[in-house]
Write a structure and sequence with these properties.
This protein is an alpha+beta fold. It is about 35% helix and about 25% strand. It has helices at about 5-25, 35-40, 60-65, 75-85, 115-120, 120-130, 135-145, 170-180, 185-195, 250-265, 320-335, 345-350, 355-360, 365-375, 445-455, 475-485; strands at about 25-30, 45-50, 55-60, 95, 110, 200, 205-215, 220-230, 235-245, 275-280, 285-290, 295-305, 310-315, 335-340, 360-365, 385, 390-395, 395-400, 415, 420-425, 465.
């Protein structure tokens, strides 16, 4: 066979192979997903890749091929490059805050890679990029083939207001390569980045993700990208939304909420009995549910991983989730819960105290809570404290504070000074709440003064964790005062 004939034969075989692969791969168009974008009054597109079945599910496919500024989803690639070049040693590498006060209070402190990624700290990644330098950055963007690889606009701005663009389809391909260790980085580098991408875990699925928010062509551009591991499979997703309304307050929330609704629609997530969400650093929020008026009602607790074990604030409300929570903590952190502190006597805070005692966990509450638990036949802690107390567990310390009556006569808060977290329990209402909830044991007259006492003692919390619903805003104390004024 001549060289020309061999070349023709090889070309035909290659074409046939590609044709077979294309036939295997399927694309399902879901125009019905538009309702979720209409709900938030935004335009957008959604693309999901089912790895085991080599299948795409797409809404607004034309837009998934259009290029957008990546803004903060570029932090995934930026982290990889920073680690691979040795600019950043690991996820604990700290860059000192420059002292410039910025719009997001979470940014105004020293950060390491994992907290900068979690809080989308722009200045950290700008400094990282400057240290990498333009030549190395361009080299790695070309090697990864990230989007259009355009670094024009400045080494510390090209992904924010410069020339870098990426399509949702390209982002999916990038995430696939990362998860499957196909990117041109060391295994160690990719493992660290996958670790800091962790966002949420339940007994049935784990989500790793990143948000982004930028401006392009007089529009707000919002991203939520990542992958969900569930049912022995991996599903990669990219949600890109746009609006011309620069003052639209629900725009940041819409990125995630639309994605969550679509994932639930696709039966990849379902209402869970237990959800664990990374807050910051060593801190995690766990959420369990009880049916109220036919719908699952969320209840939040928190735990912190110290070098001497895990300390937990409040217990699961759902009695079936005591052991699953302990198992999830052990499996993820390879440490056991050693202390649990209940913040008031209601069962959404205390239900697991006796179970935890039976597992060798030291359980605590205030003396008021201890007595009220006995009076109301709720589960009691093994130990109590009679005044505001500082607990030192391993490398972390926590301060309990009783500011007065409110949701109940015994409600306390916990202050975690290292991360500026105010764990408010049911004394504090989420900004998602439209009312005060259960006020059967409340002192409405004293509640306002109690909240003001907390504000005076801890005037600048970075995080405020309510007993129920979301905690994305740190204005829960002020929102609680607003709700009290409406009574």
């Amino acid at each position: 066979m001549t060289t020309t004939l061999k070349h023709i034969a090889l070309t035909i075989l290659t074409f046939l192979a590609l044709t077979v692969d294309a036939q295997k791969q399927t694309i399902e168009t879901r125009n019905d997903l538009k309702k979720y974008y209409d709900q938030f009054k935004v335009d957008g597109s959604f693309i999901l890749y089912d790895q085991n079945n080599d299948k795409y599910i797409v809404y607004n496919q034309t837009q998934t091929k259009e290029q957008y500024t990546p803004s903060s989803i570029y932090k995934i690639c930026n982290s990889l490059i920073g680690l691979e070049t040795g600019i950043i040693k690991d996820e604990n590498f700290v860059i000192k805050w420059d002292g410039v006060t910025r719009q997001n209070p979470k940014w105004n402190k020293d950060h390491d890679l994992k907290t900068a990624f979690k809080n989308s700290t722009v200045w950290y990644y700008q400094e990282l990029a400057r240290r990498v330098g333009g030549q190395q950055m361009k080299y790695w963007l070309n090697k990864v083939n990230y989007g259009n690889t355009d670094t024009s606009g400045g080494i510390d701005k090209f992904w924010l207001s410069g020339g870098l663009r990426i399509t949702p389809e390209q982002e999916i391909d990038f995430l696939k390569q990362l998860y499957n260790n196909k990117l041109p980085f060391s295994q160690r580098t990719m493992d660290i980045v996958k670790k800091i991408m962790f966002f949420e875990q339940t007994p049935h699925y784990t989500i790793s993700s990143k948000t982004g928010w930028g401006q392009q062509d007089n529009k707000e551009i919002g991203w939520y990208v990542g992958y969900i591991e569930t049912k022995g499979n991996v599903y990669y997703f990219a949600n890109c939304i746009q609006t011309s309304d620069s003052g639209y307050n629900d725009f940041p929330k819409a990125r995630i909420d639309i994605t969550n609704q679509i994932l639930a629609d696709l039966k990849l997530t379902t209402p869970e009995n237990l959800k664990i969400t990374h807050l910051t650093g060593d801190y995690y929020i766990f959420t369990t549910y009880k049916p109220i008026n036919g719908s699952p009602f969320p209840s939040n607790g928190m735990y912190c991983v110290t070098n001497s074990g895990v300390i937990m604030f409040d217990t699961p409300w759902d009695t079936t989730q005591f052991q699953p929570l302990l198992d999830s903590i052990t499996n993820r952190h390879h440490k056991k819960v050693v202390v649990c502190i209940a913040t008031h006597f209601h069962d959404d805070r205390t239900a697991g105290l006796e179970y935890f005692k039976s597992k060798g966990i030291q359980t605590y509450s205030s003396k008021q809570t201890f007595d009220l638990c006995r009076e109301h036949h709720e589960k009691q802690a093994a130990f109590y404290f009679t005044k505001d107390t500082t607990f030192i567990i391993g490398n972390h310390s926590f301060q309990t504070y009783y500011a007065g009556e409110g949701h109940t006569k015994d409600n306390i808060v916990v202050w975690c000074n290292d991360a500026k977290i105010l764990y408010g329990g049911c004394l504090v209402k989420s900004t998602e709440n439209h009312g005060l909830g259960n006020i059967a044991d409340a002192n409405l007259n004293a509640w306002k003064t109690t909240i003001k006492n907390v504000i005076n003692k801890y005037p600048k919390p970075t995080y405020v964790i309510p007993g129920h619903f979301g905690w994305t805003s740190n204005k829960g104390l002020q929102h609680t005062l607003k709700l009290l004024k409406q009574q």
